[in-house]
Amino acid sequence: MMLKVLSAITFVCCVSIFADAANAQTDPISVKFEVDRKEVHQPFKIQISLNGLVLEPKIENGSFVFPSEFLNQEIVDVRFTSGEYDLFYEGVDVSKFNGEIVFGFENLGVGEDCNRTKPSPDAKPITIYWLEFHPKN
């Protein structure tokens, strides 16, 4: 009798742990986009890819659900596009996809703005882009 009770308790615990893990991966992931450290509100698309498979999750209310096809992977590549911005992130850790993600782009300027020297006439602006994760927990 005691063995049946312990088995039932173990089963319930295991089910709840797996249910929590599955829910964490299917909860919507909130997305923000920043340009020069200011939030930008404009339509965007996200593509998640690995080994030639490219999926574009549906964006609803600024959020998306991580594709189940990639849940068993460790890393994926991510492309974020919005207006003139096309940002590609290689080797993103799948476990980070929960809570909120911030895609960022910043124009650091040219020559004089960057290193206090006079820029050459053919100098191009220096830009950076980043990806921040703000986990739910």
The major pleated sheet works out as: 5 strands, mixed
**How many β-strand runs?**
9
Distance between the termini: 39 Å
Strand content: 35-45%
Q: Give the overall shape, derived from the CA principal axes.
A: globular
Output the radius of gyration.
Answer: 21 Å
Number of separate helices? 2
Summing up helix and strand content along with how strands pair, one would put the structural category as: alpha+beta
Molecular structure report:
By secondary structure, the chain is of the alpha+beta class. The chain has one domain. Helices cover 21% and strands 41% of the residues. The strands form 2 sheets. Strands 1, 2, 5, 8 and 9 form a 5-stranded mixed sheet that branches. Strands 4-3-6-7 form a 4-stranded antiparallel sheet, with no helix packed on it. The radius of gyration is 21 Å and the shape is globular. The N terminus is likely disordered.
What attributes characterize this protein structure?
137 residues, alpha+beta, 5-stranded mixed beta sheet, 4-stranded antiparallel beta sheet, 9 strands, globular, disordered N terminus
